[in-house]
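batch_manifest entry 22 of 60
target: Sigma 54-interacting transcriptional regulator
source organism: Salicibibacter cibarius
requested by: lab member K.T.
priority: normal
notes from requester: please return tokens only, no post-processing; we will run our own comparison against the previous entry in this batch. if the run fails, retry once and flag.
--- input ---
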Amino acid sequence: MISNDHVKQWMNLQPVTLSKEDTLPETLVLFSEITDKELPVVEDGHLLGVVTLQDCVAHLDEGKVSAIMKTDYNAVSHDFSLNDKKTSERPLYVLHEKNGALEGVVGHEEMIAYYEYVREQEKDARQTIEWLKLGFDTAYEGVAIVDEKGIIQLFNEAYSRYVGVSKEEALGRPAADVIENSRLPAVLKTGVPERSQPHRLQGQELVVHRLPIWKDGRVIGAVGILVYEGISEIRQVLQRMERLQTIDKQSDKQMSREPTAQGPIHFDDIIGESPGISKIKRIGRKASKAKATVLITGESGVGKEPFARAIHEDGNRTNGPFVAVNCAAIPENLLESELFGYVQGAFTGTRNNGKPGKVELASGGTLFLDEIGDMPLTTQAKILRVLQEKEVDRVGGTNPIPVDFRLIAATNKDLKKQMEEDKFREDLFYRLHVIPLHIPPLRDRKQDIPLIIADRLPKLSEENETQETTIEKEVLERMFQYDWPGNVRELLNVLEQMFHLCEDDHIRLEDLPDGFSEHNQVSESLSEWQERKQKQEERFERKQIEKVLGEVDGNKSKAAKRLGISRATLYNKLSRFS
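--- output ---
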């Protein structure tokens, strides 16, 4: 990517030029129309020399440009930095590196635009720094940031108040010397965040976050944040939350819910802060408030069912049951009776009184059809009828039963391709595809790996009644290099395996499963992922700017106004796209 201070980003691609045969009076007319006091003499696209206004006036009787042309000029390549430009008022002539052709000129007007851009960038930077300083010191929570060696680089006023050490005294010192019982050095070593942990500081019980700072696949520092001031503040938060839910609602919810192996899941329980997963959680929260059908897609193991449960729990049917059916796990000859139920005598050896199906059981709540791409075509037709008529016929029955449920479907298959192959009904697809949610694979959100591990490891220790297990940051670095074809499910499986097989409650590199690092698909590193996402965002922004420029016939001032940015900012963005 070309730097924003390179002449290529600012040069005039269609400068005013002279030929050797131009007369000096004609040249004077051209000088009257521009701000520069020097003009290039060009032949066949190549720079022959320059003519200055002073020489033109002094030698007006010489006749032609060729008589007073000079070969003393400022020639530069297209990667020349304007930061290196001397104070000379003479223009810069940008020549092609290989054939020496004149590519453009950076004159007086171009330099004015560049200096305007620099001033705006400096102004924005100063304002941003000022806001960051104010926000950092105004924050109620104490915040301390250390480098990879554990040396304090930033320390706000709130933390200063907690530890009784001024910012000036704290900066440049090891965190362990300033913060009592500090575990920031441990987080630097493991690379695993420690969220909502109890911490005693100056005799006071606190709740803290300790978060590693990852860059290019390695830990370069850590952040310590003091969140709550002891048990009393936590209790106040819990009391506020309890006011939002009445005891009656909670008891009704327990009575009406069909027993399940796991408790309620909310969106806050879905671990991940990457852009992709954050976006899907935002859409999911909106979807939970709607009545429309939701189609969740994604590879096996990405966590489609937790999203379905969260939509149910955060929706207006939360008091009703959540009934899940895995369409791929039930034999085809049993799927219809499982879904729609059957009446007495429909099959030999069945219950005398018949049995309600999952669709009936979901009435008043949510029906989750997992792996719907594996559903037979005949069953698809019957599901479509249930959705259209809002009633279900039990197998062997003649009396339709009214049902009222919210449908959430999920699949790891490409349903559009299934339709092309006549394996999935088009009318059912469009009935399902009202609110689509595509959950990204783990390889596209690797910065969530430390968060998932930090959430799961303590739970494993609690479930197995063992001392809390820690993990080496080298293990996480190796995990960033792995493709995770099994997604989050595979990560949790690998983590549990290492948990049970590690020595001394500490997971090391040698505890990784055999062949883990030799997987046949080595994925991109975290830095490569971030670079790819940035390029995607830049491509979108570039299309928007090009569209506006086309609408205003290339007028950058009008384009900047329409985009709501300054002309210098527009130059900056255009330079990034070059």
